[in-house]
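JOB MANIFEST
job_type = single_chain_structure
chain_count = 1
residues = 186
[input]
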Amino acid sequence: MKTTLYFIYLLLLVLLFGCNDTKIKREIQQLQSKAISFPYNMNFTIHGRDTLISEYVENGLKLVIYTDSVECSSCVISKMYLWNSIIENTELYKDKLKFYYILSPQRQHIEKVRSALNVIDFEYPVIIDTLGKFAKLNPHLPENKALHTFLLDENNNVILVGNPLRNKKIEEMFYQIVEEKLGKPE
């Protein structure tokens, strides 16, 4: 009897995790099904000042770090410094690799987000998507926030999904893909 219950429990666990893996694979396939679109004339915030950088969306590789309105934007901002090591490791690629920090806070949190960006010493431009344009242009974005960090090729196709800060294997793959696409840094 105990063996039968144990077997049923084990079977349920396998099915549960198997379904979860299948769901994640399906969401990644959905994300990779279409190129990512960026809104034109996006407002970037650098050191708390809004800046229009229309030429920023150009060819080259792009790492997108997207935070939707469900996530805590202020929490994400407080941890942005963690990206400094990856940025420093890829600085030699200059304009061939860009980082896109896209925050889409809830309306009632926009000022809190702006204030938080004023406080941190983060040198890289951040997009505050107050109208949710990025999500509207990309309805194929998954709900799973673990899939909200992705690397795009020069045509904005998703070539890697996952956060290199949270997963060593993703970090290794990130550097490998960047080197394959852009060559070794000089």
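[summary]
The chain has one domain: 37-182.
Confidence is low (pLDDT under 50) at residues 2-19.
exit_status = 0
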